[in-house]
Amino acid sequence: MLKAVDKHGFAGLTYRAVAAEAGVTHGLVSYHFGSLEAMISEALALAADEAIRDSRMSVSSGEVSAFADRVSTLVSEHPDAQTYQFELTFEARRRPELASQVRALYENYYSVTERSLTELGIERDEALTRLVFAALDGLVLQQLIFGDAGATDASIERLHELLATLAESSRGEPMADGS
């Protein structure tokens, strides 16, 4: 399904298009999912779970350098899944019935980001959580558009530096520059 959306957008999303990409009959796709809505929802959940796992957004080690350190690899290896999430987000602007799925997707990402920031020693801050996720989301989109994994890696490295500074500040440790 992700390839069908990547190739045709949501306007071209049909059981037949998904079946053609999967190499099965459209009746099998229809039977398996039951509805187009269920197919969209299942694909979204799968894409989000893979993105969280493969980008290493969820860290429990407390190591800033581990947070989201594989974002560029994720985009390079799974561009269809990343494109699907953006396509669905834009489609939800035209089809309000998809808005709850997109909201749930983003709430999941916010939750994982918040847990990771807390694990890194950064105090809970909803605005900061949204800002950090927005940076990651924007980097994914830019890499999809421009194909520059190096720019993504450099930006993630800079994000790590900023988060390390915030973590030090949250712990009351002196800043790296001595302030």
What does this entry look like structurally?
With 179 residues, the protein is mostly helical. It has one domain (36-171): Tetracycline Repressor, domain 2 (Orthogonal Bundle). It has nine helices and no strands. The chain has helices spanning 2-8, 15-22, 26-33, 36-55, 71-77, 79-94, 99-119, 126-146, 149-171. Helix 1 crosses helix 2 (15-22), helix 7 (99-119) crosses helix 8 (126-146) and helix 8 (126-146) packs antiparallel against helix 9. The longest helix is centred in the C-terminal third of the chain and has 23 residues, at 149-171. The N and C termini lie far apart (52 Å). The mean pLDDT is 86.
In whole angstroms, the N-to-C terminal distance is 52 Å
- How many H/I helical runs? 9
Structural class: mainly alpha
Largest sheet: none
Radius of gyration: 18 Å
Number of domains: 1
**SS elements, strand count:** 0
CATH topology: Tetracycline Repressor, domain 2
The coarse silhouette is: elongated
Provide mean pLDDT, rounded.
Answer: 86
What is the CATH class designation? Mainly Alpha
Assess the beta-strand content as a share of residues. under 5%
